[in-house]
């Protein structure tokens, strides 16, 4: 048995929300790294040495399993993009242990999952654009995506190790972008089969994947939501070994935000059929009630729905490496004269600071945020959605008063 121990302290300027987000992401490690045999994270309660504020311990069967975890691309990405920017100091210790640290009863303390499982997270968005080359330039310059395929008909761009986060399809007949499809990843074939079974029971049509999607997954299928939006579900999307070697780029695509004139039907479809869980509702008289729904990746929301008088993709959210990168993105938009549709906001629900840029030819509003709240395993199974009233401070905590609705 190998025991790996990390004691650490956050930088003084790191906010409580950011600390909670990092700690919550650490708690996802046992699900992400099957080599781990036990994992414990918590505050340092020592009265003698308070230099380190927190500690986590992990156990592995042998050193090979430890090295596999330490050298994995996902771990290196976490250390580079999430850990180092917020950690002031740390101490690492690894030792050979003769017995497990954590008891079997402690490992069984997490809630048993009996609900139907939903998609893991958002994989990609497929958008039609009247100006393909200009759209590619927009997403590379402003968002920091890397081009992986670019023909006269389509282009694919990625943020991290995913095959692509945005697929752009050329359609010169348009004057503004159109939403063609949203891709969702699924953790296991069993969940994929259960999703298909639930959709058939609901009377939804099961469709084949787009050929380009089918070429980068092991298995999958498509369907349409109550708005007619094509959803493509895939098990084992292909990945790259490493993220793009770009300093300015997003970490991942976090969520789409859908405005819909079929709000109630959409909520039923995404929650009761697909298995998304509600994290929060914002009730805004005259502006449209919004539902923030989370998937199995436990982000506060991997999808949002807003009641409206028509259906459209309102925005796509990309998580950047840090607040510094968000502000660099804002500076790029200002420099190029690109519209900033909503300037710096501090989202109360997701604990993220963001701004939104927009060019209707290339896509919806693009949100660039510095992070996103991650629920713990226990919170994911026990959280009860809040119902918040129509106050702008329930969306942006930096708003000055209850009638400060400008700049959204």
What do you see in this structure?
With 408 residues, this protein is an alpha+beta fold. The chain has two domains: 2-98, Alpha-Beta Plaits; 121-394, 2,3-Dihydroxybiphenyl 1,2-Dioxygenase, domain 1 (Roll). The chain is built from eleven helices and 20 strands. It has helices spanning 16-26, 29-32, 63-70, 73-83, 104-107, 132-143, 189-202, 211-214, 263-273, 323-336, 377-382, and strands at residues 2-10, 36-43, 54-60, 87-96, 121-129, 146-150, 154-158, 166-170, 178-186, 219-224, 230-235, 250-260, 277-282, 290-294, 303-307, 312-320, 339-347, 352-358, 365-369, 386-388. It has a nine-stranded mixed β-sheet. It has a seven-stranded mixed β-sheet with strand order 6-7-8-5-9-11-10. Strand 6 and strand 7 (154-158) form a beta hairpin. The longest helix has 14 residues, at 189-202. It is globular.
Describe the secondary structure blueprint for this structure.
Elements (H helix, E strand, L loop, with lengths): L1 E9 L5 H11 L2 H4 L3 E8 L10 E7 L2 H8 L2 H11 L3 E10 L7 H4 L13 E9 L2 H12 L2 E5 L3 E5 L7 E5 L7 E9 L2 H14 L8 H4 L4 E6 L5 E6 L14 E11 L2 H11 L3 E6 L7 E5 L8 E5 L4 E9 L2 H14 L2 E9 L4 E7 L6 E5 L7 H6 L3 E3 L20
Parallel strand pairs: 5-8, 9-11, 12-15, 13-20, 16-19
Antiparallel strand pairs: 1-3, 1-4, 2-3, 5-9, 6-7, 7-8, 10-11, 12-16, 13-14, 14-15, 17-18, 18-19
């Amino acid at each position: 048995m190998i025991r790996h121990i990390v004691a650490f302290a956050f930088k003084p300027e790191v906010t409580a929300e950011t600390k909670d987000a990092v700690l919550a992401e650490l708690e996802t490690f046992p699900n992400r790294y099957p080599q781990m045999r036990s994992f414990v994270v918590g505050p340092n309660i020592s009265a003698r040495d308070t230099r380190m504020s927190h500690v986590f311990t992990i156990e592995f069967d042998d050193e090979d399993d430890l090295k596999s975890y330490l050298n994995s691309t996902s771990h290196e990405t976490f250390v580079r993009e999430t850990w180092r920017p917020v950690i002031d100091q740390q101490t690492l210790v690894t030792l050979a242990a003769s017995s497990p640290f954590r008891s079997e009863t402690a490992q069984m303390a997490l809630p048993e999952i009996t609900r139907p499982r939903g998609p893991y997270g958002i994989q990609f968005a497929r958008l039609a654009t009247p100006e393909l080359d200009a759209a590619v330039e927009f997403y590379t310059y402003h968002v920091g995506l890397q081009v992986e395929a670019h023909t006269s008909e389509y282009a694919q761009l990625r943020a991290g190790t995913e095959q692509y986060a945005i697929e752009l399809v050329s359609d010169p007949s348009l004057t503004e972008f159109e939403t063609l499809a949203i891709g969702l990843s699924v953790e296991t074939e069993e969940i994929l089969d259960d999703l298909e079974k639930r959709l058939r029971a609901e009377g939804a049509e099961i469709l084949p994947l787009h050929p380009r999607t089918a070429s980068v997954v092991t298995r999958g299928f498509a369907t349409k939501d109550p708005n007619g939006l094509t959803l493509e579900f895939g098990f084992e999307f292909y990945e790259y070994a490493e993220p793009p070697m770009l300093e300015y780029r997003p970490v991942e695509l976090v969520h789409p935000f859908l405005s819909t004139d079929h709000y109630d039907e959409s909520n039923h479809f995404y929650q009761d059929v697909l298995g998304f869980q509600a994290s929060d509702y914002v009730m805004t008289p005259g502006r449209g009630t919004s539902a923030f729904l989370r998937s199995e990746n436990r982000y506060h929301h991997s999808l949002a729905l807003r009641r409206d008088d028509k259906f459209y993709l309102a925005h796509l959210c990309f998580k950047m490496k840090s607040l510094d990168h968000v502000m660099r993105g804002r500076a790029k938009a200002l420099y190029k004269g690109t519209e900033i549709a909503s300037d710096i906001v501090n989202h109360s629900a997701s604990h993220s600071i963001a701004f939104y840029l927009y060019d209707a030819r290339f896509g919806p509003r693009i949100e660039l945020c510095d992070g996103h709240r991650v629920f713990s395993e226990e919170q994911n199974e026990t959280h009860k959605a809040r119902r918040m009233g129509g106050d702008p401070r329930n969306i942006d905590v930096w708003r000055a008063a209850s009638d400060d609705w400008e700049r959204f």
